[in-house]
Here is the input.
Amino acid sequence: MTASATGSARFLIVGPQGSGKGTQGVLVAEAFGVPQVATGDIFRANVAGGTELGKRVQAIIEAGDLVPDELTSELVRDRLEQPDAAGGFLLDGYPRNRGQVDDLDAFLTARGESLDAVIELEVPREESIARLRHRAVEQGRTDDTEEVIANRLAIYERETAPILDVYRPRGIVVRIDGVGSLDEVTERIFSALAARGLAPNGVTA
Here is the structure.
């Protein structure tokens, strides 16, 4: 079975900061011919485009506040209703907590859709910290101290990781060892998806 045969390739990629989910998400989305839908990109596009939603986001960010779940979900719904996402998508950075999971479930159910797979990139905390510290040095981000990095990971562990407990009983979580070279991890992802009958267009699983 292929993604084109099922007519569906709706994925969510989840992993701690430093897990490489952004890079892997791009590769999976490209292979399946679906858009990578990342909340940061949606925020920036709406702000840059001067949309009504973008103006609301900009005001919140300029005030130093976090974009609330309700507005985040509204922005994602708006993005998923665009034509290029009709045949599927790969979500990155959303849903970020259980409230957003409920919002996504309600949206997809109303459309008669559901996620096909949740790709979980597993990376030990020490590995994530090492990668993020290396990235901070490379990019000259002196504010990315070990304390700041550890706090970001703590937020992920407290708020985002628990969403996997919602998806596991549904049998759609694909656990991937995120330690290794870029190519090794990519191969693990595609092999695991293929084992579930999810293969890129033109590739028989």
